[in-house]
Design brief:
Layout (H helix, E strand, L loop, with lengths): L2 E3 L6 H5 L8 E2 L10 H11 L2 E4 L2 H10 L5 E4 L6 H10 L1 H9 L5 E4 L1
Parallel strand pairs: 1-2, 1-3, 3-4, 4-5
Amino acid sequence: MKLLFDQNLSPRLVANLADHFPDSSHVATHSLDHATDVRVWGFAREYGYTLVTKDSDFHEMSLLQGAPPKVIWIRRGNCSTQQIENVLRKHVQDIKSLIKNSEANLLLLY
């Protein structure tokens, strides 16, 4: 189960969540930190990632294009990396269910 963290999230989340999602990555690792959303979307699709973002654009893309990739949309304002990590840890089972469910495209987390 691979997560791809968008540019609006800290690259530290990759290491911090490796116990649950060991094959995850950050867009900066792939020189996509300044790429268009379409390019990030295509990369996630091609390499089997689930996108994790705070950006509503990927929600809209998921509605228009469907999965893959699946999208985890974190609906929080300004918050720390630790708070984001806590939200993701709280919802590990929900995230794994999203990834396994062939009919689900999006998970909203608050």
